Amino acid sequence: MNGSGVRGTVTMHDVAARAGVSIKTVSNVVNNYPHIRPATRAKVQEAIDELGYRMNLSARSLRQGRTGIIGLALPELSLPYFAELADSVIRAAEARGVVVLIEQTSADRQHELDVLTSDRRQLTDGLIFSPLELGPDDADALKVDYPLVVLGERIFGGDWDHVTMNNVDAARAATQHLIDQGRRRIAVIGAHAGETMGSAALRVLGYQAALAANGIPFDPDLVVEGGLWHRATGADCTNRVLDSGVKVDAIFGLNDALALGSLHTLHARGVSVPDEIAVIGFDDIEDAAYASPTLSSISPGREQIATMAVDLLLARIAGEDKPYRRVITDFSVVPRESTAA
Amino acid sequence: MNGSGVRGTVTMHDVAARAGVSIKTVSNVVNNYPHIRPATRAKVQEAIDELGYRMNLSARSLRQGRTGIIGLALPELSLPYFAELADSVIRAAEARGVVVLIEQTSADRQHELDVLTSDRRQLTDGLIFSPLELGPDDADALKVDYPLVVLGERIFGGDWDHVTMNNVDAARAATQHLIDQGRRRIAVIGAHAGETMGSAALRVLGYQAALAANGIPFDPDLVVEGGLWHRATGADCTNRVLDSGVKVDAIFGLNDALALGSLHTLHARGVSVPDEIAVIGFDDIEDAAYASPTLSSISPGREQIATMAVDLLLARIAGEDKPYRRVITDFSVVPRESTAA
DNA sequence: ACGCGTCTTTGCAACGATGTAAACACTACC
DNA sequence: GGTAGTGTTTACATCGTTGCAAAGACGCGT
Q1: Which of A144, A262, B187, B248 is the most interior residue, by most CB within 10 Å?
Q2: Same domain for A83 and A153?
Q3: Interval A102-125: pLDDT, tens
Q4: Residue A175 and residue A290 in one domain
Q5: Contact between chains at A78 and B83 (C-beta distance less than 8 A)
Q6: Do B292 and B199 share a structural domain?
Q7: Nucleotide nearest to B19 (CA to C1')
């Protein structure tokens, strides 16, 4: 259809000439300016079609100061949770007419800081940021001059919108689910010592709350440290806790990757799940439903997080000036074989 | 550092004024034009630092006709293989100073066609495209006027570069691996009837070649159709072949998701792996190493694919005019528990 | 027929950078 | 001292679009 073919640089100028109107009228037609006589609109549209005109988005960006691109910064796509989150964000963005530029921070603090001030921010109208390493001390770095939506609960109290789930309650529900199956010696894997605001800390709090609510004493030996929430870490943590000799009848992986790594180790060591040890994860990634045995988990409402984040960001980009919001999404316990009775 | 603060729109103009040089000299400094007196460069650099100048990328894009963004079109990020591929592409791109805009096609033919002509192509300097549904008949649609690198083997013979693995040989190797373990009744799951050029068809060819080379008769009943290569499909295919009553001692999943779905079903039905049935997948996604039992697979050299694709694309963007290339990446068999002796 | 308000269309000046080609500066050499 | 050659800096037009404000067209009431 591209009439002229080779690198067809057809501009509004050409369209205007062809249609016998001014270039501004072409602009008005393209932008759906309401006051245009139908006949004029038709003429212009015809010229556009004949010439195969496509608007030059760089020019528009320069003029408007907007690119139509939003940024999404996350640790890495090879972590299934983030891949699925990115999937949802891209879909939500597409539905609203914008596209997504993804940046990976490799869960590296400096990299997370860099992303906030990178030249690439010029290319995006705003940023959805899911930090893993930044903490309350880095709040200043988040005081940026472009629309920002932060995912997760690591940092509060700044001029940005926040979308998060209730980690404490969700972890409490996960733990309660294990308790309901009669488990009492529940290990937690993937804890982060010294952290107070991150997902790890909050989920451990929920775990403790559930124990307390059921009159089960808290045993620090059951809390296993583990840095990156990868499968390998989960496998390792599980080995450590089993080797330590403490009695364990359930494992709560602070995310699904950890729990899947745990299943892997349990299988390798011939421990039967859920008979000897029940396992629950957190995030409800697609893998969970297909693990052997299938993995119980907490569904964090991924779609909802993505949709909210995009909507909040686009509202700020559009100039909304309401007070910054903190949105807490819904969660649910998804019981599967790994915690069956 | 951003001296002026609020939405600091510092332009080259401001820098030029501050440094007492012309705006073009600032441009020259920023772009590392060689013939600049050190004193001048220092003056300009100082002004840049003091004012916190950042170049407006939209303006540069308009002028140069380049955005510094490359597109990556793939079926969906929630498929681990593509998530990992995207991870690698983003890293390769970052190392070369460009960023990546990801578009999902949902493995939908129309969507795949749309992506090629979308307005978004204006935003990208070129596209890395991994089609799943387009076939040889769609070759014309790929005749686009921007740099394009196609991944996979579905469509050949056009004006674009191609990065692919040797699907036939790799599938032959996978099958040979099973045969080496003494398996003779090897089912293939995820085949696409009627397809001749896609990965499915090529991998089935490799499977047949291996059987032939070992004097094992080909039994069509062992070839199980399955559309989307998701875990659910693999689970379903496995149920079908087991229910059909044909004897099976091994399953070759045409990708890892299928094979993982298969493991799921086998586990659910109490079939022991690899004792009763051995399983091998294809792609070597991270999951494979953590499945229970761990899944043997074919490693397709993902890093290499990503790196080659980005390099080829950037070379075209830079104006390289050599004949179009077809790069075939290396693969290797990764034996794990699911095919242990 | 006149004036006024509303609907349509337009010209012009930006947005912020870079390519071109010319101007200027300085050395080196005859 | 003049000229060629190299190194350094500059003015200007231009990339393709949109905001602004004003001009032109049209309908209506009086």
Answers
A1: A262
A2: yes
A3: 999 998 999 999 999 998 898 999
A4: yes
A5: yes
A6: yes
A7: D9
Residue B195 belongs to domain spanning:
167-300+334-339
Nearest to B186 by CA among B266, B241, B142: B241
Tell me if B6 is assigned to some domain: no
Place of tokens 């400096």: A110
Beta strand pairing call for B148-151 and B161-165: parallel
Chain A residues close to B91, C-beta within 8 Å: 104
Residues 6+ apart with CB under 8 A from B251: B186, B187, B188, B189, B238, B241, B259, B262, B266, B277, B278, B279, B280
With respect to residue B155, please indicate whether it lies within any of the assigned structural domains: yes
Q: Exposed (0-12), middle (13-18) or buried (19+): which is B131, by Cβ within 10 Å?
A: buried
3-state SS assignment for residue B138:
helix
DSSP SS3 for B170:
helix
B323: its two tokens: 């004949």
The domain tally of chain A equals 3
CATH of residue A113's domain is 3.40.50.2300
How far is Cα B151 from Cα B130, in angstroms, rounded to an integer? 5
Do A21 and A45 belong together in one domain? yes
C-alpha to C-alpha distance for B22 and B15, rounded to whole angstroms: 9
Establish if A124 touches chain B: CB-CB under 8 angstroms.
no
The torsion defined by the Cα of B113, B115, B118 and B119, in degrees rounded to 10, comes to -170
With respect to residue A7, please indicate whether it lies within any of the assigned structural domains: no
Nearest CA distance, B40 vs chain A (angstrom)? 24
**Could you count the other beta carbons within 10 Å of the beta carbon of residue B19?**
22
Mean pLDDT, residues B43-68 taken together: 94
